[in-house]
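User: As part of a screening pipeline, I want to sanity-check one entry by hand. Below is the sequence and the SMILES for flavin mononucleotide. Please return the complex as structure tokens so I can compare it with the automated output.
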Amino acid sequence: MIFWTLFIGIGALAGGIAMLIKPDGSILQMQPLLPYFQVLPFADALFQDYFFSGIALLLVNCVPNLIAAYLLIKKKPAGIKLSAILGVTLALWIIIQFIIFPLNFMDIAYFLFGLIQALTGYACWVFYRQSICEPKLSDYKNIGSNKSELVVYFSRLGRARKAAYEAADKSGAEVFEIKSKERTEGTLGFWWCGRFGMHNWAMEIEALPEALESYKKVTIVSPVWVFHICGPIRRFCELAKGRIKNADYILVHFQPAKYNSAKKELDSLLGITGGAFTSICSELGHNRVM
Ligand SMILES: Cc1cc2nc3c(=O)[nH]c(=O)nc-3n(C[C@H](O)[C@H](O)[C@H](O)COP(=O)(O)O)c2cc1C
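Assistant: Here is the complex for your manual check:
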């Protein structure tokens, strides 16, 4: 996003200044294009040279993109929304150029840049909304009061952690976080997890809870990765097979689906018939039971 905002913003700065220095368009060799502007409204007043176009370029594409870059660098979420809107603005701007100019390479390229900027902004926004979940263990006072139950979870972005804390707070169970030996953090971690998800691979984990067999019930909380339970929980279940007598399952995911198949998957990995199955949709920051 920072690349696109700087690329478009600095490009527009150079173009806008060139138009203001030489409004006849000679620096950018744009004199032959001026007649095409005459179909636009108020062309008599605004498009007899490139002065107004230069101002418009600076105000619409340069300054807002540079502001968006600044906000993104400062990690302000408003920068994500602003740059996505500016991507759409650029694409719309170029659509006007498609209408008035003969088809040319630069217009096609900048139209695609606008679309890519808008789509990147959308992806950043989804990632951002997914990552703003940081439950605090200290807020759940009842966790650990019932030593006969355990809640086991894996979480990249906190949603499964929140579901695990809530379940443990309700029953008083102890909690255990499964940690992966692979990289799972950040955007690179997302793609790496996706690889494991696509192949349905187990992901190596650091440690198992001690005395797993001593718990009367274990609740397993897993995010959904590519329509299945996540890799670290898959590995946990493989290692825990034969050591868990009763299990409940909680699945946390983005899409508003139930993912019933995950229950069968967990049953078969653990070699038992599990109890309660809860499916939680964490779409854009709101947790709701499906
Ligand atoms: C690699 C990967 C694949 C995913 N695939 C799906 C999916 O197929 N369906 C879905 O609803 N959510 C999918 N998600 C979204 C997660 O299930 C969702 O964001 C969940 O809340 C993450 O839990 P966490 O915040 O505890 O990490 C995927 C997430 C990752 C990282």
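Points to compare against the pipeline: The chain is about 50% helix and 10% strand. The first strand starts at residue 149 and ends at 153.
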